[in-house]
Write a structure and sequence with these properties.
Radius of gyration: 14 Å
Mean pLDDT: 96
Distance between the termini: 27 Å
Length: about 140
């Protein structure tokens, strides 16, 4: 189901809870993907709190029409080099400058709740960092 995008800063600043099973997030994932695809022209990623959930789930756009689901993503290794990026957010108006790492290695559970690892560089690394910030209650 396509959900409204949450814009309540107090809600978005609360860290999210770890998902303990696929059962507790499977409906959230469907809603996130439906909502992200509906906004595909401006959505590069989305965190669960942006549709009102309190679980640690993100979806990240990896192709023109494809999103990957990441449950409980954690950055396990990161670049020592930073750069300035200009980002927007579906929950906020306008753009903001932020500091991002050049690359990150992450571990997460996929939509089948299997553990995965991914090395992210460039725009993908930027999107993943933005969405993981959301999970931690950090807003650009």
């Amino acid at each position: 189901m396509i959900k409204d995008i949450v814009r309540d800063i107090d809600f978005l600043e609360k860290p999210l809870e770890k998902a303990e099973s696929i059962e507790e997030v499977k409906d959230i994932i469907v809603d996130m993907l439906d909502t992200a695809r509906f906004h595909t022209d401006r959505c590069l990623g989305m965190a669960a709190n942006q549709i009102g959930s309190t679980k640690r789930v993100i979806v990240v756009k990896i192709t023109e029409k494809d999103f990957v689901t990441m449950i409980n993503p954690v950055i396990v290794k990161e670049s020592t080099q930073w750069y300035v990026a200009t980002e927007s957010c579906m929950s906020l108006d306008g753009e903001r400058k932020v500091m991002r790492k050049r690359w990150v290695d992450i571990m997460y559970r996929d939509a089948a709740f299997k553990i995965k690892k991914m090395h992210c560089t460039g725009l993908l690394a930027q999107i993943v960092q933005h969405e993981i910030d959301h999970l931690n209650g950090v807003i650009i």
